[in-house]
Amino acid sequence: xxxxxxxxxxxxxxxxxxxxxxxxxxxxxxxxxxxxxxxxxxxxxxxxxxxxxxxxxxxxxxxxxxxxxxxxxxxxxxxxxxxxxxxxxxxxxxxxxxxxxxxxxxxxxxxxxxxxxxxxxxxxxxxxxxxxxxxxxxxxxxxxxxxxxxxxxxxxxxxxxxxxxxxxxxxxxxxxxxxxxxxxxxxxxxxxxxxxxxxxxxxxxxxxxxxxxxxxxxxxxxxxxxxx
Length: 228
Description:
By secondary structure, this protein is an alpha/beta fold. It folds into 2 domains: 5-82 and 151-224, Rossmann fold (3-Layer(aba) Sandwich); 86-148, Alpha-Beta Complex (Hypothetical Protein Ta0175, Chain: A, domain 2). Helix content is 36%, strand content 19%.
């Protein structure tokens, strides 16, 4: 099958173990773009982060931000947001009443639908607290995202594909975290990098032999060589 889009997670996939962009991975992304495969960046990061990353990395696909709640197309400057942040704020206040030690991941503004906290508490303890607000607590290995129940990267990717004329079955998705499970499960080809969490490897069609950005390089090479 010919794949039209390559959806790539950022943290833990296109970055290395030191949380820095893997430059060989970035070169592979540009190689894919030059071969006519548009690259979509899909992350839990803010849309501002994703817009900048898209520009500097050199991707032409839309971006999926805040774990699927926000999609943005840099080329047409169009933004779509599903839901709002109010319930996440209410859920965070309820958490603080029960666990005062919980802290925001950052105090910088910019999130449209989520509240993100430091991953210094078991998210299982938070889930019964946030559920009445229609919020779920998702740990990514970097932070805990308090996000709307029913939102995930697969749904955001699906919305973007519908809007810009792509088919989900012709998308290759690469990730490493639990917040990538739905995306890998629902795309045409789901790939986990070698450093991915076990639950992601369990749903992946392929697991790379190398971790982080090296895994991205491996995928792009196989994709361009017709091995997928």
